[in-house]
Predict the structure.
Amino acid sequence: MISPDNYPSKALKDAVEAISSLPGVGSRSALRLALHLLKQPADKIHHFAAAVDNLAEGVHYCRTCMMVSDGDQCAICADSRRDHKTICVVESVRDVMSIEATGQYHGVYHVLGGIISPINGVGPSDLTIKQLVARVAADVEVILALSGDVEGETTSFYIYRQIEASGCKVTTLARGLGFGDELEYADTLTLGRSIANRQAFKP
Amino acid sequence: MISPDNYPSKALKDAVEAISSLPGVGSRSALRLALHLLKQPADKIHHFAAAVDNLAEGVHYCRTCMMVSDGDQCAICADSRRDHKTICVVESVRDVMSIEATGQYHGVYHVLGGIISPINGVGPSDLTIKQLVARVAADVEVILALSGDVEGETTSFYIYRQIEASGCKVTTLARGLGFGDELEYADTLTLGRSIANRQAFKP
């Protein structure tokens, strides 16, 4: 057992406390990680710290889509070959990276920076919904690519209400069984929806 | 899927690469942690980075027992109430903290800083065995509190060979805990008892 009151060094304790502030990292894992870093050469430790420190000022956000960027415009918004009339609305940076990795999408994005969640105290004003509303027009398609849970659905509905007046086309991700999924292992909600949303068979 | 070649920001990529250099942290978890930090206020990020950075110069080692310390002598070696004729030899700082947490031990320690492991390229000269040999005398008891696996036994035997000439008493932990168990994961009671029931080391 390791109790926080018997740390042999304040510097070590500070580092462990900082690392254990990360989500999913307990004080024991934090100590393991801190001692691992402690074993590294000083320059490696400095490099690690500098890389993290640079998150504060080194990361910018695209003024258009609010995506993490090196400057005030991200590479995607700056790319004239992308379809700027199709805006995919996602919760986070990770979603953009995931969709980009598919290579299937050629429009642009809008990063909300979160999802409406009263439990976590996240309201519409905490997200970049205003900036999205400012982007949409009658000739724009907005793809609501948010998670299928209650919070995702709530956020999608809220955004729809905000942008429908613009006359833009609003779509959402197709939901159903994953390719290769077997019916017997699918959860009832997914299976039920994929039946309800069945599509014409294209041989 | 997130591929390392589609990071939207160099600063973010650097941070993710640094964090994923930690043991047991994959690039995906590293991204999750980096984005978590990114959401924090700048001063929190700086505080985190500073705490880690300080590991390089802020942590000192006790000149006697090689324990992590705030100065060149640790609190345990500086404590006159401890029995300085009983030296508990452990692999790492975590083991000292684990044993201290039991409250069963009132002697001092000697931190090897690792364990003899040819596979990992760790030899006797990489550990603080020389410093231990310099500490032992005929009126000293050395408790070999290393893990019960092959590497632990090998290290114990090597150290025994180095110090037996001094005529010191050499003991080892009672194996109340299963072989292969690591000290830090043992419960306080078991660990405390194995210190109390330590037995003469039989090579």
